[in-house]
Amino acid sequence: MAKNNKNAPSTEGATPEELEAARLAEAEVKAKAEQEAKEKADAEAKAKAEQEAKEKADAEAKAKAEQEAKEKADAEAKAKAEQEAKEKADAEAKAKAEQEAKEKADAEAKAKADEEAKAKEEEEITPFEVNGRNYTFSKRCPNKLQFEGKVYSKNELLTNEEILTSLVIGESPFIQKL
Hints:
mainly alpha, 3-stranded antiparallel sheet, two-stranded antiparallel sheet, 3 helices, rod-shaped, Colicin import membrane protein
């Protein structure tokens, strides 16, 4: 048995007690080596398991952090898109309101201009009769005329036959025969 092991002490000339003691010592060394190998393997397995658990925890933490970062970025992008959409809608509503206000103002201005033009036209072509003939104020006639030191509007002149007769007889350039 000891012949194969070069490090084992020589058993030649040993007594059975010495042989038994050597065998026990060898078994004890072997058991101790096996125990140390088992402890070393357990420690390595434990260290490996701890390392794997740590790596797994790190990977999970990293994945969680990445997920949270992605969710935060998505939320920020969504909020930004909503803000931009709101600003665009507000700008469009404002532009529409301004356009409607402009169109309304333009329509009112046109209506007023048309009304003024119509009133002016009516004023200009209002006929009147003097000595059986029809006359009207000429286009050159101002809205107000001074007659004998007093200022009259066209409407006031139309109600005063004496002044109209004087203007017609005096061949005023502001009177036109129809």
